[in-house]
Amino acid sequence: MKAERRHELKENDLVHALHDLRAYTQSHGQRLLLTGGGIVVIILLVWFIIRSSSQATMRDWARYTEIASTVETTGWSTGLNDLLDLGGKTKDSALAIRILGQCGQEGLRLAIEAKDDAEAKAFTDQAEQAFTLLRDQYGGTRALARGVAICGLATVAENRFALTGDAAQKDVAKRYLEQVANDPELNATPMKNQAITRLTTLDEVFKPVTFAPPLPKPEPPKVDGGTAGDPGAAANPDAAAKPDATAKPEAGAAPAAGGDAAAKPEKPTQNPPQPPP
Question: How far apart are CA 44 and CA 145, in angstroms?
Fold first, then answer.
């Protein structure tokens, strides 16, 4: 009896619950419909955003691969501009950090290999743009990205000093390197140790380079015994100074001093002077 009674009580409770639910849905049906529809819309919207973001990320990675593979034929001037544009627009933080860091490093390398100062300045400007974007967009939340960007900006200041001789770039580079050296989030990282070392050699890096004046041109050698305007005599002075053994003396000419004629005594005259009476 007790079991049957409990079973009846449970059935009555279930009937009452279903009755209450039916009454609630009848009185609040419109509200429930709107709430359920809103939940469905939110779920669909989230799914669409995730799907769109995934597709955009895939397109950005495909574009990055395309630019990197064709940069050797199109040239780095065009390639850097395309990569900088992609790095500033992509929503994938990992891809953006990779692109901007690569653009900065390539810009510094190309500035060293540039053909002239104008080309070196253009590549240096692109490197500065890349490192500035990396610092401003991801430096606040990514310590490693911040360190790479600030160390790169210090190198940009060094390059500007080498190109223009602007002594104010030394203070700019010092300020950047001190930010990295004093950043607690960069402890035990290679870039912090590098910044500390670069601070100790800052005076040598920013030392003005002076060139010695050119040496004067040597005077042409003087040739003794040569005849003016005679290139043969200037080329062989011994030949010019040595007398010609085959040459015959002219008639009536006095014998040369130191020759055989000078060693023989002169013949007496036919009328020697008479002694006085």
Answer: 35
